[in-house]
Amino acid sequence: MTDKNKFGLLLLGGGARAAYQVGVLKALAQTLPRSHGLPFPILSGTSAGAINATALSCYASCYHLGVKKLEWVWKNFHTDMVYQSNFKTLYRNLLKNFSPIRDENISIKNESWFDNAPLKSLLEELLDLNRIQINIERQYLKAISVTASSYHSGDSVCLYQSGDEIQPWVRAKRRGIHSAIKIEHLMASSAIPMIFPSVELHSEFFGDGSINQLAPLSAPIHLGAEKIFIIGMDQPKNRFFYHEDKAIPPTGGAIVGHLLDTIFSDVLTSDIERMERINQTLNFIKPEYQNLSGLKNIQTLQINPSKSFSEIAAKHYESMPFSIRALLRILGINSNTAHKSSLISYLLFEQNYCRELIELGWSDGLARIDEIKTFLEIG
Hints:
Keywords: Hydrolase, Lipid degradation, Lipid metabolism. By secondary structure, the protein is of the alpha/beta class. It has helices at 19-29, 48-58, 63-75, 87-98, 117-126, 130-137, 183-189, 218-222, 252-282, 287-293, 309-315, 322-329, 343-347, 351-367, 369-375; strands spanning 7-11, 42-46, 143-150, 156-162, 169-171, 174-178, 199-201, 204-208, 227-231, 242-243, 246-247, 299-303. Helix 1 packs antiparallel against helix 3 (63-75). Mean pLDDT is 86; it is low at 104-108.
């Protein structure tokens, strides 16, 4: 049997799509005793996945309670709980940040489409981050990491909280910094470029952790994980850019959505492929020499959505605030073209959409529950 402290959970970003993660976690929780602790003592999260991971770390002693709290929040989400969406505030923010006319009294502008101050207030209200250290000391949790991207160095920075046995690291374009997790870390990790403002940490400005994250598996591996359960966001591909097998040009909204998909999902596939090649190479090295290589065999189990987030989001397009829909029309996104851009699936923080994603995650999780429990060595 594998040492339980070597089990990790990796939750990547995706804005409102992260509701899907809650459904998968709920499916697993249903099969465990109500008093069961966290099945994966190493938690690694990026962007919205960092928020979910941190919430779990606060309730590491009772996995059921952590999932229940997460589900309640996601099931009752509204856009105004994440970013200000009324016409006056939204367009004032756009004019202030992107107008060529600068206020002489303001030397620095933190440019973004939306003001996500409501999200910060929500996290401060819901998360008692002092519990993280308590859970580490009581051995319910080994480590929690939040990944953000430095606009100054271009590095993918893993901010992690753990015991003293895990030392900071520096690799090509990525590094780990030992730091107590704070609300500012979560705001930085989820600051989608141009959409939400960057955040200053450790004398640098940071944005969404999915940017420059060339090796998503790096963080949990550095924290000691050897078996990593991954709740991914790689959705079924579509043929929206074809008409009768003839390629058609994408709209501005479709291009933005494509860029976000690339940032949030595609790097993980290549990182897993690289890991599998390392595992194959290690099989040809004698066990006594494997430790000398500094490499170790890593196992992963990934679960991805069985349905398209974009198509689900399109059904709930009209539930978005009118001001946001008006802004999206500039990018060519309306009720008729909503299904052709994945951008909406990232921004649609409305309860009916989030509830459908939770239901999808729950269904996908139950469909593979035996495989998940076997991987996590849960009897």
